[in-house]
Amino acid sequence: MKKPRLVRTLFLTLLVIDLCLLLLLCARPVHARWLAHPAGKPSPDPELFAPGVISTPEDETAATLSPDGRTLLFSRAGAIWESRLESGQWSTPQIAGFSGHQKDYYPSFAPDGSKVFFTSSDPNRAGDGATAPLGIWVAKRTRNGWGDREELPPAVNLEDREGAVYCSSSADGTLFFGLGKPGVRHIMFSKLVGGEYGPSQSVGSRINTKAFQGYHAISPDGRFLIFTSNRSGGLGGMDLYVSLIENGEWTEPRNLGAPVNTSADDSHASISADGRSLFFASNRTSLDAPQTTRLYSKMKETLDGILGGNRNIYRVEIDALNLDAR
Question: Whole-model pTM?
């Protein structure tokens, strides 16, 4: 009679252990579970993000992930698209509720997920035959989706200069955005003080050069800035660089190097709210690598596919990038 009791005790003990492990797994944030690297040291090799759903033969840029890891926004075809993580899979993207009425680009979640910044224009500000200037807009999240879109104040959207584009914010509310002509753009910032944005300031000459600087992301803690530039010495047309804030000054930018940067254009940085993941866009193709064959049918298949030359979304773990290296 003692053996059945022992078996039942052992069974109940194993059941309790299994339940505890299940509770620990469920307690991890959703994004921590699906973003986790399989084992050991994170890989420095960027992974194509959600191929066939998010990354397609169309042109996708500027992906931004909500803090809970359940919502992804990105740019495609002059609109902002939204996809949700459902049962471990990303849903078919739909145009976000605040977008689709005019040309909208480059969404960026605030670190707390309460709102999203994006680039758009006000048609009412365009003159006869003129194109409306671009500016930074914001839409707040509500229980039912998204609230009305609003244009940010003149401290950010300066009317006497070229349009403001591509905004990223740190946890203290400081906005980093681009200003200037498309070929020569500088990164500016505006601090949030008492609920109001202060005058825009340059991040300094180490980052802002005569080349293009933009399509950037500030880390949630404001410690480092990853940005796109076509300055000399890069690996491709556009490369990703990093600069750290030390003693109130930005360090000399460092090219992130291969395999993040390639001979293609690598751009449109975004950092997840937990600071663990870098999302970016790239138009790299399998044809960039040496080819063993040059069959027309094979090349056409590649060019018609996801890696056909339009930009796609990639993700890499920031811990693998060794950002503190000199």
Answer: 0.84
